[in-house]
Design goal:
With 125 residues, this protein is α+β, with helices and mostly antiparallel strands. It is built from four helices and eight strands, in the order ααβαβββββββα. Helix content is 32%, strand content 26%.
Length: 125
């Protein structure tokens, strides 16, 4: 059994290996993608188109430029702040605050989508 203590929960998050951290970057799918594929969320990848649902950049739609697994943040095109000297700096967004609108086509990902879609359809029928 996993401990319920907050300090141990935080330790597990920060000490997690990369393949587990990748799963922490799961993002909810839009309603159309949910109905099409039959599941709710998928780990976000560079090139996916997302919509920011919360925060300063609410309703912003853009491509994912970078996924930071170490800090559990993503960089979305258009989500930037202006520094005092006038330069634009990308502002990291938490993956829990975005929704995937369009998935980037990829052979490996198509295999994952196909496999997970079949699992969802077996359970419902």
């Amino acid at each position: 059994m996993v401990s319920r203590q907050p300090r141990k929960q935080r330790k597990r998050l920060h000490a997690a290996p990369l393949h587990v951290r990748h799963k922490h970057l799961a993002v909810p799918l839009s309603l159309e993608l949910r109905q099409k594929h039959g599941f709710r969320s998928i780990p976000v990848r560079k090139g996916d188109k997302v919509r920011v649902m919360r925060g300063d950049f609410m309703k912003l739609e853009g491509d994912v430029l970078e996924v930071d697994t170490k800090r559990r943040r993503i960089i979305v095109a258009g989500a930037a702040t202006r520094k005092a000297d006038g330069t634009e700096v990308p502002r990291p967004v938490s993956p829990s605050k975005v929704m995937v609108i369009k998935l980037k086509p990829d052979k490996e990902r198509d295999k994952i989508l196909d496999r997970r879609s079949k699992v969802g359809k077996k359970g419902s029928g």
